[in-house]
Amino acid sequence: MSAAEHVTSARASWGADIDPLLEALDHAGEAMVARAEAWSVINSGSLELAGLARMRAPLAEALADLPGAVEEAALAPSQRVRPDGEVIDIEHGASLRLKVRPDAPIQIAMTGHYDTVFPAAHPFQTPWREGEVLRGPGVADMKGGIAVMLAALAAFERLPGAKRVGYEVLLSPDEEIGSPSSAVLLAELGKRAHLGLTYEPALADGALVDARKGSANYSLALRGRAAHAGRAFHDGRSAVLAASAAALALDALNGKRDGVTFNIGSIDGGSAVNVVPERAVLRFNVRVPDVESAAWAEAEVHAVVAAASARDGISAHLHGGFTRPPKPLNDQQRTMASWTHRAGQALGLDLKFQPSGGVCEGNNLAAAGCPNIDTLGPCGGGLHSDQEFALIPSFAERAKLSFLMLAGVERGLFDVKSLKS
Fold this sequence. Notes:
By secondary structure, the chain is of the alpha/beta class. The chain has two domains: about 5-210 and about 325-420, 3-Layer(aba) Sandwich (Aminopeptidase); about 215-325, 2-Layer Sandwich (Alpha-Beta Plaits), CATH 3.30.70.360. About 35% of the residues lie in helices and about 25% in strands. It is built from eleven helices and 21 strands. It has helices spanning about 5-10, 20-25, 30-40, 50-65, 145-155, 185-190, 240-250, 290-310, 330-345, 360-365, 395-410; strands spanning about 70-75, 80, 85-90, 95-100, 105-115, 130, 135, 165-170, 195-200, 200, 210, 215-225, 225-230, 260-270, 275, 280-290, 315-325, 355, 370-375, 375-380, 390. The strands form six sheets. Strands 1-4-8-5-9-19 form a six-stranded mixed sheet, sandwiched between helices. A five-stranded mixed sheet has the order 6-7-21-20-10. A hairpin with a 5-residue loop joins β2 (about 80) and β3. α6 packs across α10. The protein is elongated. The model has no long low-confidence stretch (mean pLDDT about 95).
């Protein structure tokens, strides 16, 4: 059997009436790319409230092309530890939400984020094309992914017949900083949905992610006693030294448990060299492969904090924790991957899957009991740098993949309800 015959055979289960919709998505590829390109021009760094507000306007307009009413969901402030150890509130933009057929018997969570890692002061602000490559801030991560999602949903709405599948689109403004405020919405959505589709970029070679580590971000605020380094050096208690000792203790934990890493991000503290520093903040990240490792890592972190607090004249306060629980490769995730692979075969794709140490909203959905595929956006790379790119041909390709996933659920090719007990 030829390759074309294999594709025809694989696609037959969906019905012949999907072919025109797939063809239309092929023709819509340039429109998807142009949309991502236009959105990329709008700076929407995670903490740029004005830019996030500007970004919401075209997103709301695009969402309005689908059934259902678009609404803004205001987010509560999150907390951040300043370099001096004081805790302050951080305001966030609103999430955008669209519910379509919320009473349908099958519900799908469709999630994405419209923030980027690039603040307004960053030089990387303008997209451009190089042949079949689109470069620019957010073109892959994940304004391009949102464009792919919306095109797939538009095609799904044109699928003939009454729908038994409903979905909720949730677009958040704080994913790149760990979803500190949208996490509650993700958890609620994950509990309601049978499965999730999330639009982080696929890898440049087309591979998708099936399992992810969990991630915790911590800030350890330490306070000692200031003193003159010359006249009263021995009266001082250095918060910077306490932070350094804690950093070394955390780093020494690397290699103690398989798959667990402790990364020291920064130490804020100190001033003039003739002053024993009174304040310091140690910031670090922990990655873990499973919930058991998360519990072990948390215990080790608290032991380090206790040791810091036990130093003469030092007080220590820990802030933060796991904002992204682990997403292990369990039976539900294997089933989701097999369905995605089957949809890929109907397009002539032999999709590969691999684990990732990176984290995203798929972690949050999985923790809420919602199995999901979270790299359904365009293929790309260079993420979080001025080398970010998306492959232009992959926009139409991945929109067709998502459309077949949705159509497969709708037409009973995938027994979605078996995913959740």
